[in-house]
Amino acid sequence: xxxxxxxxxxxxxxxxxxxxxxxLNFLIPRLMPGDPSLAIIEELERVSGQSLPPRTLESIQRxxxxxxxxxxxxxxDYLGQLARLDLGVxxxxxxxPVSDLVWQGLPWTLLxxxxxxxxxxxxxxxxxxxxxxxxxxxxxxxxxPLTTFVSSVPYFWVALLALWAFGFLLGWFPLAGGYDPDxxxxxxxxxxxxxxxYGALPAATIVFSAFGGWLLGMRNMTVTTVREDYxxxxxxxxxxxxxxxxxxxxxxxMLPNFTGFALALGGVVGGALLTEIxxxxxxxxxxxxxxxxxxxxxxxxxxxxxxxxxxxxxNLAADSVYALLDPRIRERA
Length: 333
What we know:
Order of helices and strands: HHHHHHHHHHHHHHH
Number of strands: 0
Radius of gyration: 25 Å
Low-confidence stretches: none
Structural class: mainly alpha
Distance between the termini: 12 Å
Largest sheet: none
CATH class of the domain at 101-223 and 252-295: Mainly Alpha
Mean pLDDT: 76
Strand content: under 5%
CATH architecture of the domain at 101-223 and 252-295: Orthogonal Bundle
CATH topology of the domain at 101-223 and 252-295: MetI-like fold
Number of helices: 15
């Protein structure tokens, strides 16, 4: 009963958080100066080289919304669009729907950032357990200072240096893109190998910069956990050190790391913005960067809504699983 009550409270909190995020996502673009309809008209007039009739402006205002219309009516229309999973139409890629642009970039981001997040978490957490179990040993004395140095290096510098060294000087990897544009897109061996080739360098830079945080966090928590009474008791009973390390120390020490991992998975949809910019990788982060440059408000609004929703869902999943792993959370609730 206590677990159900705790889950009901969390669901209520996250429902309110989703409503707040949706409302802010609606208000912020409308409080900004400018009219997306006029931006469309200016772009069409620039391309066509002639003025457009007033009927065209009226039609575009019906599509993008008239900023002078009642705000409450606009809000209800916006909620109705979200209920239909309609994120609007891109200004700079008119008349392409925002959802099409998002679905084009989402698989690339999930492939690159999702896989590297899992790999960095597993590598960092595993090495952190070993370093924390034998704190002060040779492995810990080498890995911990080295990892601290690597974590302090700005990521964009690592990405630019890797691109310059392995892409420009050595020519081992492409300088930009997600696949060879001369190949037909599909589930065939040449295209898959091309995707892996183009994504190898961005993935390596992400793992190189990210695993250190997981390692240091897990190492510090393991150092604290190995001093707990239940760990000392398990060792005194004669259990093997490997079993005590994995079943007793690591299992309890990884709770904070697991929370961070769940939040990192929520941020996967947002993409590694700097990575996708440096390598011109066609993901959600690069789409957001281009929309900011082009002032494409519907695309920005759609991407922000998707990011907010995924982060909140990741938080909800982390809270739920954390409560299952640690009964003290439910008792305090």
